[in-house]
# Entry
Amino acid sequence: MRQSDSTFSEKLTKIGNGERLGTEQIALIESRFRSRAWCKVNVPATVRLFHRNHDVDAYNNNTFIPEFENIADDKMIGYNTLTKVATARRNLHKMSIVESGGLPYSLKLAVGYPYMITMNLDVEDALVNGVIGTLKYIEYLTEDEQVTIYGTTEVDVEPQPSTSTRIRKRVRLWLEFPNPSMGQLCRVKAKPHVMFKRDVLYLKWTPIVTRAANIPLGGNIKCRRNQFTVVSASAITIHKSQGGTFDEVVFNYDKSQQIQLVYVALSRVTSIDGLYLTNDKDDFKFYHGRGSTAPTVKDIRDEYDRMANHRLPTLSMQARAFCK
# Structure
């Protein structure tokens, strides 16, 4: 059970099954509604859950003033004319994060806000695609530290026009993850460095460095991109949040959302005290506790009933019956 509050868990089960909630149960959920202005002031760094990618992008692009913007180190290879490389570069900048190998062109960074890992860095260490941590520190590296981490102080990047205002600095990010098992091996390796800088670093923080990947752009042209494998997770889609657990979430609720989607969003949080609901009209009304007769919900409910009435005997059940 994801929820530490059994009463809250029971309400979620009813919602997921399309059952009708009591008046007091609906009132309890509606008591978690807040205005967006209130959430902006009181829970500014709490993860927002939206249904549409458009809303996610809009929120992530405007939620905070970045302390540092890390521009990807891009090197175009495999081209033979300037026209072809110009076309390839235009196509590159139109790509989504997924299409560019999980490496964004521009990464806006602010301490205290959540970021999501975009590729599997170390499966054994639980640093995998979709894991979310809070950015705790942006470390600017010395030349000696750059050699230790990257093997060189040179930045592998295609020469830019003299009018370019991009300033490249080697930095390292330190994230704190909600589960201590995430990044545990990485933290052990980083311990000597943390102890050396214990005035600014903490042992529970996990270091994240840039990674390089080749992005195919058609023909023989590729972009060799070097960037951090994280993106802002101040807001994520409900679908992307599946499998995640949060102490607090702000869910942008709407009565038109499918009941399964509402269930997923509500069940991301461990306790109802960490749940905040917003909606576009600020009417603060929860519509999904009235019972549902939708075919998909009915099918789910019928399947649960079938499983309850036709339980398969397990070895433990047989052992208990034998002991009796």
